[in-house]
Every structure is written in structure tokens, then in C-alpha cells.
């Protein structure tokens, strides 16, 4: 079930804000009845009409994108900065990112117009693993990394346990490359976790999302997910996390 204004926007008929205006003006019907409330949710079997015209849903599309640094994980930006959808000028569907990556973070991002798919992947209870590679200041001791592995207190609460692995160190520059796997999606979470143990992030990249990787792509590249990959992502997200990790 999704909010009515979101369904209208995803169908490519109007922006989310314009869709809300249409609802409040009484120009939208659900199953033959006029709806004037913004909180209404509809499912795939509900019949939606806008100005007496039945809503035709877009065919679902799914893309894997290698987001460069300096790009906003959004469909628009009030400061006119580059956004991820600028890299898809040839796509007619109204796609949007599943979750987000910080402006200064590069790496794997999934974009789609399938709200149910996006919600399934992003829901915290599904615990979809995200693998990041961070270049950090200093060389973290094992004891410090263990704090991340047990969960560390941030201003918005304690994090779930993470997995960490030191990939390399540079004694001259006093930096280290650390791989970290988390399944949460808090704002700037990985950066804040490393700051909490005294090793600020210099550079950050998301290498993997579930089983999806950036293999064969360079920054700014994208490819369509195969039907098999979409099916596997749905199955993985709907499987009990404890069973996945057995």
C-alpha cells in the first residue's frame, strides 16, 4: 500500500506536490469515490482516476547506478546541484533512488519506480547488508574496530553490530583503508561511526548492496537490473535475516 499522491507521481502524471493539490481539489477518485484526504493509501488492485481519466501505471524499471562524488541522491535539488536522475535523461519513467548516499560518498545506488520494491529493501527489519570501503585518518586498533562490531552509541542511538576488516594501511600518510558492512541506513552513519572512534573518514565508497556489486562499472555508469536480480533482491529482503546469515 502506498500514499495516493505518491502513486499519482510515480505514474508520471504530476509531481508529488501537484498530485496533493489535485487530491485536495477533489479531482481524484479511488474506486469511483472522490478522495480529498492526503493520508489515503491505495494498493495495486485499486482503480485510481485523475480528472475522470483512469491512471495507467508505469511498467516497473530497476537500475544499478555507480554514483560519483558530488552528486545528490535525489530527483531534484533546490540549489541546482547535480542529482542522480540527471544521469538518466533517456528514461521516461519517474525513477528515484532507493535510500541515499551522501553528497561526498560514491558507490552503488539502486533506482526504480517500483515503490513496493523500494520499501521492501529500505525497511530496517529486512536488514539488507551494505558494504562500504572507507579511507580513514590514522590506523584503527583492533580494540577500536571491535566497538563498531558490537555497536556504538551515536547521538541518535546505538548502532547495530557491524563487520569490519582492515584492507591496508599507510604508515607514511597515517591512513588506513577499512571495509565495513552495516544494514542500517541512518544519515551519514558510516562517517559518524568512524568519527566516534577517533578516525574521521577521508573518502567513502559503497561497494556492495545485498549481493549487487559495481563490477564492470565506472563512476557515472549504470545498467538495468535483470529480472533474476530483481527477484533475488525481493527474496533476500523478505527472508528472515537470521536465516540468511546461517
Report the CATH architecture of the largest domain.
2-Layer Sandwich
Question: Approximately how much helix is present in the residues?
Answer: 10-25%
Structural class of the helices, strands and pairings? alpha+beta
Cα distance, first to last residue?
A: 31 Å
CATH superfamily of the largest domain: Pseudouridine synthase I, catalytic domain, N-terminal subdomain
Strand content: 25-35%
Largest sheet: 9 strands, mixed
What is the fold-level CATH name, i.e. the topology of the largest domain?
Alpha-Beta Plaits
CATH class category of the largest domain? Alpha Beta
Radius of gyration: 21 Å
Q: What average pLDDT do the residues reach? A: 92
- Which residue ranges are poorly predicted, with pLDDT under 50 across at least 5 consecutive positions? none
Count of individual domains: 3
Shape field: elongated
Number of helices: 7
| Element pattern in H and E | EHHEEEEEEEEHEHEEEEHEEEHH
* Tally of DSSP β-strands: 17
What are the SSEs and their pairings?
Layout: E1 2-3, H1 4-10, H2 16-24, E2 28-30, E3 33-34, E4 41-42, E5 48-50, E6 53-54, E7 62-67, E8 96-97, E9 105-112, H3 115-122, E10 130-137, H4 142-150, E11 153-154, E12 157-158, E13 163-170, E14 175-182, H5 189-196, E15 201-209, E16 212-213, E17 222-224, H6 227-238, H7 241-244
Helix pairs in contact: 1-2
Amino acid at each position: 500500500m502506498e500514499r495516493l499522491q505518491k502513486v499519482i507521481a510515480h505514474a508520471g502524471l504530476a509531481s508529488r506536490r501537484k498530485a496533493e493539490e489535485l487530491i485536495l481539489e477533489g479531482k481524484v477518485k479511488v474506486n469511483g469515490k472522490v478522495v480529498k484526504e492526503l493520508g489515503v493509501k491505495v494498493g495495486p488492485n485499486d482503480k485510481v482516476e485523475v480528472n475522470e481519466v483512469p491512471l495507467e501505471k508505469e511498467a516497473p524499471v530497476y537500475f544499478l547506478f555507480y554514483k560519483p562524488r558530488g552528486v545528490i541522491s535525489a530527483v531534484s535539488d533546490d540549489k541546482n546541484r547535480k542529482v542522480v536522475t540527471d544521469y538518466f535523461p533517456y528514461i521516461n519513467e519517474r525513477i528515484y533512488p532507493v535510500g541515499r548516499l551522501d553528497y561526498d560518498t560514491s558507490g552503488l545506488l539502486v533506482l526504480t519506480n517500483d515503490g513496493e520494491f523500494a520499501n521492501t529493501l529500505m525497511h530496517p527489519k529486512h536488514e539488507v547488508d551494505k558494504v562500504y570501503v572507507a579511507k580513514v585518518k590514522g590506523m584503527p586498533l583492533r580494540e577500536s574496530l571491535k566497538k563498531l562490531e558490537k555497536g556504538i552509541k551515536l547521538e541518535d542511538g546505538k548502532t547495530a553490530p557491524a563487520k569490519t576488516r582492515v584492507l591496508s594501511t599507510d604508515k607514511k600518510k597515517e591512513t588506513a583503508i577499512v571495509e565495513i558492512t552495516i544494514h542500517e541506513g541512518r544519515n551519514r552513519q558510516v562517517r559518524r561511526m568512524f568519527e566516534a572512534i577517533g578516525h574521521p573518514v577521508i573518502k567513502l565508497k559503497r561497494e556492495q548492496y545485498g549481493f549487487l556489486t559495481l563490477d564492470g562499472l565506472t563512476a557515472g555508469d549504470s545498467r538495468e537490473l535483470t529480472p533474476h536480480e530483481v527477484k533475488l533482491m525481493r527474496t533476500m529482503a523478505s527472508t528472515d535475516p537470521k536465516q540468511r546469515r546461517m
